[in-house]
Amino acid sequence: MLSFQNLYENYAAEVYRFAFWLSGDGPEAEDITSETLIRAWVRRSVVRTETLKAYLFTIARNVCLERRRKKKRQVALEDLYYDPAPGPDRLLESRSELDRVKIVLQSLPEIDRAAFILRVQHELPYAEIARVLGLSLAAAKVKVHRARKRLITDRMRREGA
Q: Which site in 57, 99, 110, 118 is 20 to 30 Å from 65, CA atoms measured?
């Protein structure tokens, strides 16, 4: 039987990476990862997909969507003392290819982004991606293809090709 410690040690890093790419925010991804592992542990007798890894990704995606729905109802406070100079994190972001990819991925529909991350980052087969996202096999392949095409188009546009 799998203990919580083994569950955490074996899957936390992968769930965190998946959550990070879905949410685009490190602290948010940490919260999603924690909640995912707790939910999986509490309901460990109910695994709805063929692999525990896919089950964890399904939970993480659902947690991310729940949090996103809750955030839509919140209103941000205005910053009265806005600093127009870009901060060090903004300067670094403008120089980093990884951050550019993140921006492009965040502009994709959530389901396309999730399919792409599951395929590229976690190397899940298309059939498992289809099960996790509740899609047909063909739809899962199309979603991954669209994300790849969008990244290539963005890169070519930036390089002036």
A: 99
Length of the chain in residues, anyone? 161
- Per-residue pLDDT of 35-56, as tens digits, reads 999 998 888 777 655 688 889 9
Cβ contact 104:157 at 8 Å = no
Distance separating alpha carbons of residues 138 and 145, to the nearest angstrom: 11
Amino acid at 35: E
d(CA 102, CA 105) in angstroms, rounded, equals 5
How many angstroms separate the CA atoms of 2 and 45, rounded?
11
- Give Dmax over CA atoms of the chain in angstroms: 55
Q: What is the pTM of this model?
A: 0.61
- Let me know the angle formed at the C-alpha of 145 by 144 and 147, rounded to the nearest 5 degrees: 65
Which H or E run includes 90? helix 88-95
Q: What is the pLDDT of residues 115-161, one digit of tens each?
A: 999 999 999 999 999 999 999 999 999 999 999 999 999 888 888 76
